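Explain this fold:

***
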Amino acid sequence: MKHSLTSAATATGISKSTIYRAIKSGKISALFEDGVYKIDPAELHRVFAPVSLERVAKESLTQSETHDETPLLRQEINFLKRQLAREQDFVMSLERRLDEADTERRKLTALLTFQQEEKSAKVQDSVVKKEDNKLWKKIFR
């Protein structure tokens, strides 16, 4: 019995489009009758290996393993969610510390600026007093 594209794909585990390309490129010979490709099994398996029972068993085993992994994956998701929450708390803590440090820096800058202004005012006063003293000395000499 000859294979259609669909049954050939099932028999080899290869996609229909790959088998179709192989027919179009001449790697596989096939008859096109009544709008359906008919591929001889010997011709098909000359190019593409048949699906083995071992492969089918392995695929079904893989599918059942996925169901067994679901609880483990849920545990991992919950663990990652908790870790993400801890990281977010840590980031918020760092942001708070940064804000506090910024406030402290602003206060210290204001204090230093005020002290510098005070010093410059004292220096100006002392310069004015020295000039006044010189003036008085000249007058009363």
Remarks:
- Residues 20 and 26 are 10 Å apart (CA to CA).
- The longest strand covers residues 31-33.
- DSSP finds four helices and two strands in the chain.
